[in-house]
Structures are given as C-alpha cells and as structure tokens.
Amino acid sequence: MTFQEIKEQDSRYILHTYGRVDVALVKGQNARAWDGAGKEYIDFTSGIGVNALGYADPQWAKAVAGQAGAIQHLCNYYYSPQNTGLAQELCQAAGMAQAFFCNSGAEANECAFKVARKYGEKRGASTILTLTDSFHGRTLATLAATGQEAFHKDFQPLNPGFAYAQANDLEAVREKLDGSVCAVLLETVQGEGGVVPMEEGFLHEVQALCQEKDVLFMLDEVQAGVGRTGYFYSCQQWGLSPDVITTAKGLGGGLPIGACLVAERLRDILKPGQQGSTFGGNPVVCAGAREVVRRVSQPEFLQQVREKGAYLTEKLSALPQVEAVRGRGLMLGVKLKKGDAHDVLVKCAEKGLLILTAKALVRFLPPLTITKEDIDAGLGIFAQVLEEI
Ligand SMILES: *Cc1c(COP(=O)(O)O)cnc(C)c1O
C-alpha cells in the first residue's frame, strides 16, 4: 500500500478526531522507526509517552507473545498470576497498597473519582477539585475534570461535581477547599497543558491542606509516571504521599493498560460490584507491563533517564532559537523564540524526526531507553529545522 492509499482509506473510513501528520510507520526498533517506503525516523514521541522501552523491545515482545500463546484472556471472576504479580510489583514500586486495573488513563481517573466520591459520601462531600490547564482524559467525567475550556466546548452539559483552581497558586486552592470537596486531583507536571511543572512547595502545601481538611490528595501520573521524569512516580522525587495515583501511558510499554493505585488507608474502599472492567488486568497486557515495571523501577535505569533528560535540556537550551526548556526527566517542553510549534513538528517529520507539541511549545517524550547517539541524531535534525524557520 502506498502512503497515498493509506491516507485515502483513513479519510474515508475513520472519524476525523485527530490532526494527523504525513507519517505512516510500519516497523520500529527502540528510538528508530521506518515507514513502508523504508524512510527512517528518530522518535522523540514514544507514541505520546507510551513506548517506555521503545519500539519492539525484544524482552517485552517475548513476554507478550509468550503470554498470548499461553492464555490471552480470562474474566475477572478468576485469578490470574500475571494480574496479581503485576499488582504486587507495581504497588511495591509505587509505595501504594492496592491496584484497580483498567485500559486507559481516562478510566484510571474515572476509578479515582469513584474512590473519592465514596470517601466523601459520609460527610456529603462530592466535588473533585482540579487545576486550570490540567488534562485528565476524554470521557465525560474526565472532560469535566479537565481544566481547559477549549475541550468543554460543544459537549455541554458537563458532568457536575468538578471545580478548578489556578495551578501553582496555593491561595486559590485553599479558597476552593470548602466542605463540598472530597478530593484534589492534579498532575505534578502538566503534560497536555504545556509541560508545566508544579512547584515543589505548592505540591507539599496542597498535600498538607488536604490532610487538614480530610480531602483525598490524588495525583494523575498518567503521563509523568513510570519513569518518565526520572523517578518511578514523579511524586517520589519529593517524598509526597498521595492517597491515590492514577497511571497508564508508559505502563504497558505499548499495550493498553491503566491503573488506579490506592494507599493503605483506602484499602478495599470499593466493594465487589462497585467497579469493574471486562479487559482490565488482561494477562497479555500485564505480562508486558511486568517487563516495563521490572526494568524501569531499577535505580540505575531511573538514573539514566535523569542523565539523558539533563543532557537533552542542556543541548536544547544552547540552541539560539530556543527561549526556554521546561519539564522533568524525559518529559520536556521547548519554548521557541519564533515560529509555530506545529510547523516545526511538520518540518521535523519531513526530515526524519518525530516530535510532539503541547499548546505553543514543542514537546519531547522520547523512549526512556533512547541512546545518546539517537538523542544526538534527533537534536541534529531539530537544530537544522530551527535554522530554517
Ligand atoms: C493522556 C492523559 C490522560 C488520558 O489518558 P488516555 O489513556 O488517553 O485515556 C489522562 N491524564 C493525563 C495526565 C494524560 O497525559
């Protein structure tokens, strides 16, 4: 099939919910990928932070294929050692007590909302407080949780029970934390909102406020989690103790999985029949996720993510067209002095570099396993494109 034929098929049979770039990948290997005509790309996207171990990692592929050939699915009325094994390994890596498995970040947040509502029920508190410029997903409840009006447009009425406070503004959070609030949900580094890190002091103070008011402190680590920031969960860098962590993207290494992790004091808060998912905890997906957790949770692996992030930040900051670089680890946003981020993305793709944008910024989420050689190769193309805009 030629690229033109693929594009025509897409145009005819797929609902146009994505602004696509003229790239169709058929094969990959760590941070390199190829299209059907053999054109090579360096990948600074990892499928929006999903392919934590890069494309087609041999050990991950072996774990997944092995499980597919053993037993591919069983219903959640039965036990699966892949499922229970992942739950233990993930809870231990995260410092949490129990996991609920689902299939995406939005579903992980949906579960967190149910935990929060149930927690607040006895004192009549049901509002979930989130931050401006947050992103929590596309289902109707996570859309309501997303503090960006652009996403709400055309989909009224929104689910009730959500409120928003200015990010990095403790007084704004304090003002909104009245008796109706059962939980605060926030990203430690806002991803889709423009790669905006929350200040360490703000995070600690919001956590303290939550404790004081008996409100759950919940972190959406869907993008920032699973090694992305150089810590297994980003909150571990600052010694935070969230009541709930939601996680997805990088967790499956490329297969759909999400999880809502709860702390000890919320053990068994949801009862049989109160939450479920047909595919949640699927053994093939869990086999892949176990390989991801095993590798990414190793201190040397996380150390390397931090080093690569520091290296990339330093090189990017030295480019004359770059105004600022922000983010953590291998979750980086680049503010350009001039030029449109989307134009830069298109030009990079033409030259064989895949990147992302977030609001007006260029965004990089390379696979955590990217080599220094591939970082340099990608930076070379990026620098060349910036010279031409
Ligand atoms: C991507 C993302 C989500 C939504 O995840 P899906 O798997 O697309 O449902 C939620 N929260 C954050 C922070 C995200 O980056």
Description:
The chain is an alpha/beta fold. The chain has 2 domains: 144 residues, Aspartate Aminotransferase, domain 1; 226 residues, Type I PLP-dependent aspartate aminotransferase-like (Major domain) (Aspartate Aminotransferase, domain 2). It is 39% helix and 19% strand. The strands form 4 sheets. A 7-stranded mixed β-sheet has the order 4-12-11-10-7-5-6, sandwiched between helices. Helix 3 runs antiparallel to helix 10 and helix 4 runs parallel beside helix 10. It is globular, with a radius of gyration of 21 Å. The protein starts with a helix and ends with a helix. The model has no long low-confidence stretch (mean pLDDT 98). The structure holds pyridoxal-5'-phosphate. The site of pyridoxal-5'-phosphate has 14 residues, from helix 5.
